[in-house]
Amino acid sequence: HADALCYYGDVLLDSTRKQYAAAEELFTRALAAQPDHVTALTSYGLYVQEFRKENEVAERLLTKAVALDPQHPDALSHLGTFLGKVRQDMVGAEACYQRVMAVDPRHVNTLCNRALVLQATSGDGAAAEALYDLALSVDPAHGPSYGFKGALAWSRRRDEAEASALFERALSLMPGDSGALAHYAQLHWQQGRLAEAEALFRRALAGDPGHVLGLCLYAAMLAEHFDDWEAA
Prior knowledge:
This protein is an all-alpha fold. The chain is built from 14 helices and no strands.
């Protein structure tokens, strides 16, 4: 019962038009039925972090999930990413990732999350890119790795053809992914294609109106080109 509720909750959040209220209701129903259900705790913790921006609640849910099942790969992976990105605790994040690798060395979400945290905290783009490549060798249809690698390729090499191909692949797998849309919009903005950038920013924010990166980049573009918009 709880597994099915979590599955459909995740589906609602993966859709182009994310259905936040419906997904949250499914996660809370799962936890009401089984308060110690590790998958429900993990899915709801990730939801609370990403969409409600309630870090204290998210940390409590993810920590409880790992305490209940210390070898659960998804719970460990998401807790590691939370610790690295939100708490800037790279020691704690790496400990979580190492525990996942001990159980499943090819756990694709952990490879991707580890790369993302490494990129955000240490700036080691080469090591992060190698991890994205490893994730894609494990799962050639892993959309997040294409999106994050596209953003990294654009920031490191400014190779528009390479980055665009990676973003297009990511969006073919995850049409409503706000992160990939926002990064792709940034590429168009920096190449002077403001109409295309605006359309992508609007798509990103339609899917997640509180998407911090999308809001910040869109605001920066509008501020930089205020006179152009006024003239139009």
